[in-house]
Design goal:
InterPro entries: Cu-oxidase-like_N, Cu-oxidase_C, Cu-oxidase_fam, Cu_oxidase_CS, Cu_oxidase_Cu_BS, Cupredoxin, TAT_signal. This is FtsP/CotA-like multicopper oxidase with cupredoxin domain. Keywords: Metal-binding, Oxidoreductase. It holds the Pfam family Cu-oxidase_2. GO terms for molecular function: copper ion binding; oxidoreductase activity. The protein is mainly beta. The chain has three domains: 4-168, Sandwich (Immunoglobulin-like); 180-323, Immunoglobulin-like (Sandwich); 341-496, Cupredoxins -  blue copper proteins (Immunoglobulin-like). The chain has helices at 4-8, 149-154, 196-199, 393-401, 483-487; strands spanning 32-34, 40-52, 55-64, 78-82, 87-93, 102-104, 128-133, 139-144, 159-164, 173-182, 208-211, 218-221, 226-233, 240-244, 252-258, 261-268, 272-274, 279-285, 293-298, 305-312, 341-348, 366-367, 372-373, 408-410, 415-422, 428-432, 437-442, 452-453, 455-458, 463-469, 474-480, 488-489, 491-496. The strands form seven sheets. It has a six-stranded mixed beta sheet with strand order 11-10-13-18-15-16, with no helix packed on it. A hairpin with a 2-residue loop joins β15 (252-258) and β16. It binds CU-O-CU linkage and copper (II) ion (CU). Residues 102, 104, 144, 146, 277, 431, 433, 477, 479, 481 line the site of CU-O-CU linkage (C2O).
């Protein structure tokens, strides 16, 4: 009998410490699949990697088909689509367990949303699923599994989806980075993926920090150039607080977009909190003198660390910040605040007396005192995660989702004000699938009123109000993107009829 502890370990060490090249391709981010109307083919697969010499572990990775190369396991695949153009991606599962692909932040048809049992059947080992949609919004997005999420995300499954603007916004360089930690110890071996006491608090943190698979990478960017630095927080737990270190002469940094959506007015970067799941696009004006550096640090932890350094190198048009056109707004429906109905969502710990979570796992967290517990810590079909051949969709869905009653039902095309209250002493990045949220008010200072996004970073005890236009029909997940919180109850469904 395998103990839960064993199941929660990241993986079994590969016995031979194969020499893995430490040299990464100059452009971080693995293979690029260009999607001019069509087509990416990619798979989820186990790949060996050595974070430390002499120790090789198995990561789970998305790779463009045919692109797996030694040493690339932690580098994220980058898919590119174009705003308003059909995008089709054929996904194949080469993992030893079922999975799905969720396109985080995309406003797509619900059948493409990648939530097992709710929107599609799990993709079994060896099977494929074709995802096809036309992204209405340009910006920085990402993809990850929505099944056995804690294990699958922690082991590495995450990739970037860049939706390019219909018209090239004219940066001198575009650098996407996927930021995440790993539960890898100083010897390069997997640690337990979760510490169960931490699941009931802020969550379990990974001690090894990477930007697109490298620790504190140093990249080059055109001297005097205007660089779009896309930061995606794909970590399962950590809220990042990004600052620019002392800027050299001629350099400047602005926040230009959040969750793919441009700011109405760019803001000088001060300290930007980026919760798990969220993205932040920065506009970096590089110094003109070759060799001068701009670096960014994370300061959300008591001992800050360098996230990435950009070194000025090579020619550019040497434009100043105001000489760049602002990013065009995405076509998000305008809320009608006058007729809006308010809906309450209370984020807390624990469930109603007598109410049980939908599986045998304990519910640590809840929304409106109800818990949807994703079976977690299991690595294959088990009685807790029943998706055995022969089981009907309805049976499997009932076992995972309880009766599937939504937290709220929204009438199509109406505006709603979601009142989100955090009754806990911990922050929760609350993510809503399929719909755009627009910030209205908060008990906290510094909210960007009117800003559009897909995730609301709710501080301890914060109460925030966001507007949603219910213009995309379907059953959409709402959950905390600290994956331990999601997995242990802080998840539910919002239905748009
Ligand atoms: Cu990245 Cu259900 O979300
Ligand atoms: Cu949470």
């Amino acid at each position: 009998c395998i103990s839960r502890r064993t199941l929660l370990r990241g993986g079994v060490a590969v016995s031979t410490a194969a020499t893995v090249s430490a040299a990464f391709p100059p452009l971080l981010g693995g293979r690029v699949a260009r999607a001019a109307g069509v087509s990416a083919a990619f798979s989820a697969q186990p790949l060996p990697h050595s974070f430390r010499p002499g120790r090789t572990e198995t990561l789970w990775s998305y790779r463009a088909d045919g692109a797996a190369a030694p040493g690339t396991a932690p580098q994220p695949m980058i898919l590119r689509a174009r705003q308003g153009q059909p995008f089709t991606a054929v996904f194949t599962n080469h993992l030893p367990e079922p999975t799905t692909v969720h396109w985080h932040g995309l406003r797509l048809p619900v059948a493409m949303d990648g939530v097992p049992f709710l929107t599609q059947n799990p993709v079994n080992p060896g099977d494929s699923f074709t995802y096809t949609f036309t992204p209405p919004d340009a910006g920085t997005f990402w993809l990850h599994p929505h099944l056995n999420s804690l294990t699958q995300l922690s082991r590495g499954l995450s990739a970037l989806l860049i939706v390019e603007e219909a018209q090239d916004p004219g940066f001198d360089a575009d650098i996407p980075l996927l930021l995440r930690d790993w539960r890898i110890g100083s010897d390069g071996a997997w640690l337990d993926l979760v510490d169960e006491r931490e699941s009931g608090r802020a969550g379990t943190f990974g001690p090894l920090h990477t930007a697109s698979g490298q620790e504190a990478p140093v990249l080059t960017a055109p001297a005097g150039g205007l660089v779009r630095l896309r930061l995606c927080n794909a970590d399962v737990t950590r809220i990042l607080r990004i600052v620019a270190d002392d800027l050299p002469k001629g350099a400047a940094v602005q926040v230009i977009a959040i969750d793919g959506h441009p700011l109405a007015k760019p803001e000088t970067l001060d300290r930007e909190s980026i919760g798990p799941g969220m993205r932040c696009d920065l506009l970096v004006r590089m110094p003109e003198r070759a060799g001068d550096r701009v670096s960014f640090s994370n300061t959300s932890s008591s001992s800050p660390w360098t996230v990435v350094t950009l070194t000025a190198e090579g020619p550019s048009r040497k434009r100043r910040l105001p000489q760049r056109n602002p990013l065009p707004a995405n076509p998000v429906s305008r809320p009608d605040l006058k007729t809006a109905e308010s809906l309450r969502f209370d984020f807390g710990a624990g469930v109603e007396d007598g109410e049980k979570s939908s599986t045998a796992k304990p519910a640590l967290w809840s929304i409106n005192r109800r818990a949807w517990v994703e079976a977690y810590g299991v690595t294959g079909p088990t009685p807790e995660l029943p998706m055995l051949p022969g089981q009907s969709f309805a049976e499997a869905k009932a076992a995972i989702c309880g009766d599937g009653t939504p937290l709220a039902t929204l009438e199509r095309n109406r505006t709603y004000l979601l009142e989100l209250t955090n009754y806990t002493p911990h922050p929760h990045p609350i993510h809503l699938h399929g719909l755009a949220v627009q910030m209205v008010s908060s008990t906290r200072d510094g909210l960007r009123i009117g800003q559009i996004g897909d995730t609301v970073l709710l501080g301890p005890k914060e109460r925030a109000v966001v507007a949603v236009v219910a213009d995309n029909p379907g059953d959409w997940m709402m959950h905390c993107h600290i994956i331990e919180h999601q997995a242990s109850g802080m998840m539910g469904v919002v239905r748009v009829t």
